[in-house]
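Note to self: keep these together.
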Amino acid sequence: MQLPGLITLTPDQEQLKNAVAQLLAEASLSEPWMATFLEGIKCNDDQKREFTQLKFHNLVELGARAGRVFSLIDGSGAFIAYRHSEQEFDNEYYEGEATKYAEANCSLDSNHRYLITSQQAIMAPVSDFGWEEEFTGGADFIHLVAVASTKGSSAFADLLKPLFDYADANRLAVFTECFGDDVQATLEGMGFDALQVLEAEMPVKLSIDFGENAPKMTQDDIFRELENLGSGGARAEAAMGGMKLKKETVPFSERMMGRRPQFHLA
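Structure:
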């Protein structure tokens, strides 16, 4: 896609790529899906920022090779979007590659890395990034992956106008996902409708009482025993016989949003 007024990032634009990755990463830290994912990994604020920055560094790097990343000239606003027919891989592929890159290059320890896999499984019911085709009947479409601006969500409409103009001119629907009421309201103000909602109960607290064995168990021991418990083996039954587990959850939802092309008649 060529969008007037915006730069389509290329692999050789290191300074702008880094600025865009930083901008998208900072915005993502407060986005409900990423915030919930990072909370489940149980890392501190510095580790959350490191993981997110690495993920978006990879998303922007891969996206620049595929013509998916668009920026204002000064880097104050940017988004990732693609036309489905022009992509070799869909958004699920890029999300998966970016997560693997962040996990491989971050400073998290083995316990945190185990929790990344666990949290991906927990959030699977609200992590569908390849859902659009069931609404298109085989027609081409645009997927808006991520957007950020130094001026906040109030600037999204102006930032995304070239994308929407392109979609209207080519009669393409635009799809995206969101996870919070505020973002949904912003998208609805720009012409998006909620097409589908996926809901799940998201764990927010896990309390474990290992009884008299607790003082003897290291953190690594606890993670191993929980893994054994999940496998349902005989050893797990004996080791965890006196364990008490309490899990608290909150409702969490992924909202699939779609914008129909607007036809302007002269």
